[in-house]
Structure formats: C-alpha cells, structure tokens
Specification:
heterodimer, A: 112 residues, mainly beta, six-stranded mixed β-sheet, five-stranded antiparallel β-sheet, globular, B: 113 residues, 11 strands, 50% strand
Chain lengths: 112, 113
C-alpha cells in the first residue's frame, strides 16, 4: 500500500539559516507531491507542489526537489524567518486514485 | 471567493452521542475528502466523495462512521455512538477534479467526554 515517510520529526534552526525536510514514498506510480504548512489550530495550507515530470521547483525562499528513481523528495526553506515556524507535511498522490497520503509531519522551529 | 467551510469548528459530545460535521467545498469544486488528525500526528485519509457518490472509503472505520455528499448542500461526516478515541480534528478538503491540488478547511475539533 501507499506509505510516505518524513524526517526529521522536529527541526530547530536559527533565523536566517536553511531548513531541509525529506520524504520518501513507496508507490512508484505516485506522480504528484505537495507540501503543506499547518499553523497551530488551523488547517493545512499548500505552500508548493511538484509533479513527476519535473525535478525541481522554486518559489521565492521555498524549493522542492524530486528524485523519482530514489523515490524521495525534499523541501528546502532558505533564509528562515520566525513566521516559518509551523508543522510541515509532505504528501504523495498515486497515479490512479485521487487521495493524498501524508507524511507524519515535521515541527519546524525558527529561533530568533 | 470563500474557501472550504467547515462547521462546527469545535464540538463536544458525551460518549454514545452522535457527531455531525459539515463541509462546504470551494465554489466550483465537486470533489471532497475527509481526513482525521489525532493530536501531534499526521493526516489520515478517511473518505473521498464526489456529488452523490462515495469514490473511496478505504480509510473509514467499518462501524459508526458514514459520509455523504448530496446533490444539494454540504458534505457530512457522521459519527454514531462516539467514543473517547474519536476525539480528533477532522479536516475536509476539496478539489476541482482529479489533478491533485487539495484545499483544506480549518477543521472541526471533536472532543468526546
């Protein structure tokens, strides 16, 4: 079945440093990989996504890389700011079927 | 353009009562998903619906849980005879189709006393 593993579970960085979160997935047919940010008491918000025909995508301070051969993808946040502190979830979607399978989440703390 | 609307935001029930959670998808979205999030855990898929049809309910417990998305009105997740283990945040998400992007609501937080 589908499985998405995410690590680390917690990550503390100094303001201005970079943060990297990594995920692996089990289903080689997965073709869509979004990242969500969840703040306390709120719903997950999509921050960036990547499809399987692309190796890297960037949006300002956020970038995602995908290695289909190794079945892993990563979120990179540069020049971190205190407002980046939140829980981040990766997810993968099968080619057939429409549900997203989520990783367990990473608590990111940016210390100022 | 309103986002995904969920209500109630908070619901308290005693063991054995029923809980009904409602979700109105974004305008133009006909696909609805329900996820459950236990404290300090990830999001677990429960059910995927399109208008009047359940497409995938592989994540739904076999008993006490049901979901619907009628032709008119919001999607409803119904939990009968709630137990303490049902206490969680229940999130609804919608999408315009099967392309991938899901938009989440703010969640309904169920507490069972």
């Amino acid at each position: 079945g589908e499985n998405v593993e995410q690590h680390p579970s917690t990550l503390s960085v100094q303001e201005g440093d970079s943060a990297v979160i990594k995920c692996t997935y089990s289903d080689s047919a997965s073709n869509y990989f979004p990242w969500y940010k969840q703040e306390l008491g709120k719903g997950p918000q999509l921050i960036i996504d990547i499809r399987s025909n692309v190796g890297e995508k960037k949006d300002q301070r956020i970038a995602v890389t995908l290695n289909k051969t190794a079945k892993h993808f990563s979120l990179h946040i540069t020049e971190t700011q205190p407002e980046d502190s939140a829980v981040y979830f990766c997810a993968a979607k099968m080619e057939y079927g429409n549900k997203l399978v989520f990783g367990a989440g990473t608590i990111l703390r940016v210390k100022s | 353009n309103a986002g995904v609307m969920q209500n109630p935001r908070h619901l308290v029930r005693r063991r054995g009562q029923e809980a009904r959670l409602r979700c109105s998808p974004m305008k133009g979205h006909s696909h609805v998903y329900w996820y459950r999030q236990l404290p300090e855990e990830g999001l677990k898929f429960m059910v995927y619906l399109q208008k009047e049809n359940i497409i995938d309910e592989s994540g739904m417990p076999k008993e006490r849980f049901s979901a619907e998305f009628p032709k008119e009105g919001p999607s409803i997740l119904r939990i009968q005879q709630v137990v303490r283990g049902d206490s969680a945040a229940y999130f609804c998400a919608s999408s315009p189709g099967g392309a991938g992007e899901l938009f989440f609501g703010e969640g309904s937080r169920l507490t069972v006393l």
